[in-house]
Each structure stands twice: as C-alpha cells, then as structure tokens.
C-alpha cells in the first residue's frame, strides 16, 4: 500500500461522503476528530482546525462588531457635543470618562454569566441558563443602585478633583442624563452573554447596529431641530441603550429558539445571590483593572515635562491601540464561549484545542496589525492631526505601540479562556501584581527618575502586560483540562442541589 493509499484510509472514518455509515466533516464533533485513533496526529490537527476556525470566526466577527458599535455610540455623542462648542465637548468627554467606571464594572460583572451559562449550555442543562440570566440581572441592578448616588453627586465630586467649575457643572448635567443607562447596562450585558453562551451573536450585532443608526438620527434631531444641546445628547444616548435592551429582551422571550433556555421568570433566581455576587466581583475586578491600566498611562503623561505633546501623542497611540484591541476582545468572547461550552460538554481535548487555536489566530492578526503600523508609522498620526511635532512623537512611540498591539493579541484571549474556566479571581490577583505592583511603578521610575518620559512610562506598562501574559500562558499550558471538566460538572451539580456556594 502506497503513502497516498494510506492517507486515504486515514481520512475515510470521518470525511468519506460516499460511505453511508460515516459522517461528513460538518457533522463530526471536534472531540470526535481529536480522539479518532485511526487518524494521524497531523490529520487530527488539520481537521480539528477546520472545524474550530469555522466556529471561532462565527463567534468572533459579530462580537467585534458589537463592541465597535458600543464604543461608537459614545464617540458619536462626543462628536455632536463638539459641534455645539468646545465647552460642551469637554463636558461630554469628562462625563464619558467618569461613566467609563460603571461601563467597566457592569461589563466585568456580566462576564460571570459567560462562565456559568457557557458551561451549562455545553452540559445541555438548558434550564439553568434562564435562571443565571435573571440572577445576574438582579445582582448587576443592585450594584447599580450605589452608582446612581455617585453620579447624582458628580458635581461636587468633580470640583473636589480640581476640575473647572463650568465644565464640572455641564459634565454633571450630562452624567445625570446617563443615570438610567446604568440599569440598561445591567440588562444588556447579561443578555449578550446569555446569547453568546449559545453561540447566538449575529442578532446582537444587528440590534447594536440599528441602535447606533437610531442614536445618530435622534441626536441630530435633538441638537439641530429641537435645540436641546448637551442634555439632549445624553438622553438620546440613554434611550438608544434601552432600545437595545428592549429588542434583546423581546428576542429572548419570544423566539422559539430559546424555548429550552428561557422558561420564564423563576423564584430560583433569587437564591444564592451572594455567591453569584462573589463570582461576578472577581470578573469585575479582572476586567476593570485591565481597562484602567491604559487610562493611567494617559494620566501620568500629564505630569511629564511637555504634557501637551505627550498627551497628544499618547492619545493618538491609545486610539490606535483601542481600535486593534476591539479585534482581540471579539476573540476574547469567542474563546470564552468555546472553552466554557466544551468544558460543560465534558470535552477536555476540545477545550484545550479551542484555547490554543483562538490564541494563535488572534496573535497572527495582531502581528499583521503591528507590521502595518510600523510601515505607516510616519503617517498614521495625520489621521488625527496635522501637527508635525505630534507626528514625530507618535512615530517614535510606534515601536512601543506595536509591541503593545502584539501582546494585546494574546492577553485578552487568555483572559477569555480564564472566564470560560471560572478563573476570574485568580486573574484579578495576577492583574494587581503585574499591572499595579510592577508595571506602573517601573514605568514611573523610567519615565520620571531616569527621564525617559513617555517612552519610559510605556516601557513599564509593557513590562506589566508581558509579565501577565507569560503567567497566563504558563497557567494555561499547565492546566489539567480533565480536572477543569470535573470542576464545571461540580459547579452545575451544586446548583441543582440548591447549595449556596459556586466554585471558582
């Protein structure tokens, strides 16, 4: 028998369409491919990659669109505010920056639903998904209550922080119009995770896109027709988020697609709220520490010798980094769903394969982005400004930005794997150590003590991110996926037994 004949025989158990007793590749599960002893290792990897890549991109691409649209809503609000006047733009920017705290908190706490819903769906315990959705919404709404007090008294808080009186007043009025948006976050993020756990992401992308178009239209009417100014912009932004909430709620509660995962309101959702809060708090800390890390870089830049030039160049670099980061966040969501689904289904090999496939694909994309950036390093800043000095400063920072983009292609995906496995609390501790005990202090020493300015601060930040990425890579590499399957099964069994604790 020749080599070609042997290869044909190796393929036949899975992909021979002429054999009525065999399944075509599209109907073969990933775990079946990876455990098929009649296939060589090379063919198992190849066929597994074909299956996984299709699943991965089907999840990641709509998720990227959703996150881009969500960011675009706040950006469009700032654009309209800038058309009114410079003071209104400053107030809207200040308001959005302050509200970023709540956004990160709600997004982080909503990530706990990814772990539980994803594993329950993979284990075919469909009735638990609706209960987790309701419980998460209750917990996030309760957390939102003290946030309303914080933003109700935003004016004196902003004055205490040293902001100008006029900007503080206008910013506080803008924030007041966004208060109902807190509770829209509570419902929207949990609903998105509920849908993502079932690999239903395209409807969320359609809903978010429609909400963005509606927001732009209504904002134009309130600003240019009704003359409502800054408060009108804030109210429309809040209404747009609630439109997304209503649309997603109707889709979940009325579609027969979710007849097994949404069975109506249940009193069980009020059980174990404290245990769910602890798991959600770990997720919130993990996400918030990551989101605030880059913001601190910008704040430190304001203390350098030439703060205007440093802030302008860093702001441009952060905008480019944020755009590329959205791609990684999409793969973060996809990796979380795939990992949790496979663990819940009791497929350790598939969970491992999904983890490394998502990490590799995101790394390759980020590497391509970094190379494109370096080739256009002398021109990229002219998208934002025509200042030659800023362009030169941005060009000098581009190598640091390129390294950051590459690391951001790996680290968020590993964080998504951590969410899928339920490691949020562990990753939160890692983030504190790497970012705030190592990264920021080293950046301050290099930037201020050794006078490397923005390059020194950014070097410290890169060091913290690199350390965190290496730790997550090592932990993921050393993970016993069979034990993770058992942990996922135990977590679901404990809920069925109505016990209070949820394993981490």
From TrEMBL:
Keywords: Membrane, Transmembrane, Transmembrane helix, Transport
Any Pfam family the entry gives: MatE
Membrane topology listed for this record: Multi-pass membrane protein
Region (Disordered), start-end ranges: 1-23
Keyword Transferase assigned: no
One Gene Ontology cellular component annotation held by this UniProt entry: membrane
Annotated signal sequence range: none
Coiled coil spans: none
InterPro entries in the record: MATE_euk (IPR045069), MATE_fam (IPR002528)
GO BP, sorted A to Z: xenobiotic detoxification by transmembrane export across the plasma membrane
Compartmental location: Membrane
Basic and acidic residues bias (residue ranges): 1-10
GO molecular-function term, one example from the UniProt record: antiporter activity
Spans traversing the lipid bilayer: 59-80, 100-117, 138-161, 167-188, 200-223, 229-252, 273-293, 313-331, 351-373, 393-414, 426-450, 456-477
Annotated family: Belongs to the multi antimicrobial extrusion (MATE) (TC 2.A.66.1) family.
Record's protein name: Protein DETOXIFICATION
């Amino acid at each position: 028998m020749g080599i070609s004949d042997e290869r044909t025989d190796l393929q036949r158990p899975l992909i021979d369409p002429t054999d009525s007793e065999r399944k075509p590749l599209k109907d073969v599960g990933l775990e079946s491919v990876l455990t098929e002893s009649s296939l060589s290792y090379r063919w198992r990897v190849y066929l597994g990659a074909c299956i996984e890549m299709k699943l991965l991109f089907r999840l990641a691409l709509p998720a990227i669109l959703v996150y881009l649209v969500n960011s675009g809503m706040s950006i469009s609000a700032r654009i309209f505010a800038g058309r009114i006047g410079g003071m209104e733009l400053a107030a809207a920017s200040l308001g959005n920056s302050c509200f970023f705290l709540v956004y990160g908190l709600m997004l982080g706490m909503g990530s706990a639903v990814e772990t539980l819903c994803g594993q329950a769906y993979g284990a075919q315990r469909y009735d638990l998904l609706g209960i987790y959705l309701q419980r998460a919404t209750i917990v996030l709404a309760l957390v939102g209550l003290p946030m309303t007090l914080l933003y109700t008294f935003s004016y004196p808080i902003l004055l205490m922080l040293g902001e100008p009186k006029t900007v503080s007043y206008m910013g506080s009025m803008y924030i007041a119009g966004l208060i109902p948006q807190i509770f829209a976050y509570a419902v929207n993020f949990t609903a998105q995770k509920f849908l993502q756990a079932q690999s239903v992401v395209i409807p969320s992308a359609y809903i978010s896109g429609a909400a963005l178009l509606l927001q732009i239209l209504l904002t134009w009417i309130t600003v240019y027709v009704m003359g409502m100014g800054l408060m009108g912009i804030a109210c429309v932004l809040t209404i747009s988020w609630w439109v997304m909430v209503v649309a997603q709620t109707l889709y979940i509660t009325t579609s027969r697609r979710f007849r097994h995962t949404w069975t109506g309101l249940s009193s069980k959702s009020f059980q174990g709220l404290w245990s769910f809060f602890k798991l959600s708090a770990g997720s919130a800390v993990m996400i918030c520490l990551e989101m605030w890390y880059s913001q601190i870089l910008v704040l430190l830049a304001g203390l350098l010798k030439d703060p205007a030039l440093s802030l302008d160049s860093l702001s441009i670099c952060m905008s480019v980094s944020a755009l590329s980061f959205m791609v990684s966040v999409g793969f973060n969501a996809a990796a979380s769903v795939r990992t949790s689904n496979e663990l819940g289904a009791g497929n350790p090999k598939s969970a491992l394969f999904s983890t490394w496939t998502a990490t590799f694909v995101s790394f390759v994309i980020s590497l391509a982005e970094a190379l494109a950036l370096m080739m256009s390093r002398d021109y990229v800043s002219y998208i934002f400004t025509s200042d030659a000095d800023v362009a030169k400063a941005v060009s000098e920072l581009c190598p640091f930005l390129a390294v950051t983009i590459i690391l951001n292609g790996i680290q968020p995906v590993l964080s998504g794997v951590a969410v899928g496995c339920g490691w949020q609390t562990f990753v939160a501790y890692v983030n504190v150590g790497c970012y705030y005990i190592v990264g920021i202090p080293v950046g301050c020493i290099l930037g201020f003590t050794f006078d490397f300015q923005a390059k020194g601060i950014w070097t410290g930040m890169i060091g913290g991110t690199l350390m965190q990425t290496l730790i997550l890579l090592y932990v993921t590499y050393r993970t016993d996926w069979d034990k993770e399957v058992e942990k996922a099964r135990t977590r679901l069994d404990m809920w069925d037994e109505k016990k209070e604790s949820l394993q981490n």
